[in-house]
Specification:
12-stranded mixed beta sheet; 20 strands
Length: 512
Amino acid sequence: MLLPLLAGCSRQLPPDDSLVIGQVAEARSLDPHVATALNDFRILINVYEGLVRYRPGTLEPMPGLAESWTVSDDGLIYEFRLRPGVRFHDGSAFDAESVRFNFQRMLDATHPFHDTGPFPLAFFFEQVQRVERVDKLTVRFVLDAPFAPFLSNLAYPIGLMVSPAAVRRYGRDVGRHPSGTGPFMFSDWQSGRRVTLTRFDDYHGEPAASRRLIFRPITDPMTRVAELMAGGIDLALELSPDNVAAFRERLGYQVLEATGPHLWFLILNTRDGPLTDPRVRRAVDLAIDKQSLVRDVLRDTAEIAVGAVPRAFAWAVDTELSPTAYDLERARALLADAALSNDPTLRLLVPRGGSGMLAPLAMATAIQGDLARAGIAVVIESYEWNAYLARVNAGLDADADMAAMAWMTNDPDTLPYLALRCDARPEQGGFNSGYYCNPDVDALIEQARQATDRGERARLYRSMSRIVQRDTPWAVVASWRQNLVARGRVQGLRVDPSFFLRLDRAWKQSRE
């Protein structure tokens, strides 16, 4: 149910040539090589461009700053032909040397501007051996091994191109003085209040439809609702399931949704405690009523998920693999077959919030009730987001049996590689917090990331997904539908499965 307008919210109406976006948090950095948060990505994608981008409505790479590319038969050499006449917002030219500078800055510890990092997602390009300038508009990447996700990784914000001139001028502060080649250029950043972008009049493509974008950090979702209803913002992101449902029925507003490469799941402790037995893990999965969670708790702002590969990667998903059906009798039978000495009590860790975590406490409470009906008692422990990540990413121990987790990825490789392999345990720098290990899964992941034929990659991911569902290291629950609620007179909006927010075609009808 929508709350009434909150006292004290802004009543200053945005001008007709501007769009005001209610974000969930303050931006941390506008350097795409430093940023890791979706909140920042939604700003960055309007300022910067990469060699490739995602085709609208898909996660398929298409030309961006590169007009075309070729890949060698052995998958080790990628050569890109760049668009001519492209300039950064600071007036400097975009060319092959710019591309080389960007990647060397991230990957070469001896580069004079490597200290402008850190670059937490630079591992996306760890296979890059060197970057060569062939001529002014041709750049070549030489890899040390075939790496199938390479193009998809280039389309992610870590692959966006920053002006070398801006890096040289501002150093570590370039994230507060961004310069890209995108349809909007940076105007100002008032901490705690807004980031303002203005149309880049010398853009090499079609000019942006709006003159100005203003991103306002409004951390409380109810305040975002109030500002939207009062007209202080034109669109709001990541509202609660109840508010999204209410706005669907409210005249004068539009709700846009898109299911992306997102998974919400429970990490199960395969190393310590009752869940070391795969029958108990399977019983947990069977006892969770996923349909009720999606319908009643999440109010259809998500869809039931299956396997370790999100459905947004349609080409890699095993369509014959079904979500684990709710089956209380089968769950009880598995628990009886496991012959535990007494009824298990499981400890479930959840955050109080966090990016992509949907409604973690409400979901945990519902899951607690589901498991109780199967004879499994659950104790819920909740933590603030950063404290939660510090604990869970360090690995589940004997005091924790399950932990809620959400991932948003850009390729079917990312989540399995970082969180399912034997060698991805926390002490080895990975995110396999439940200590799952199956050498067959490891082999399939490694083969898939080196396969140059996408059909072969798909076959390998499908085989992996079947094994993972059988072993049940996770109880996979749902994939989030990104939601955007806007006033009715905002036109040209689109939400993509990438969860980014390109606003170059968005504009606002004049008030009558």
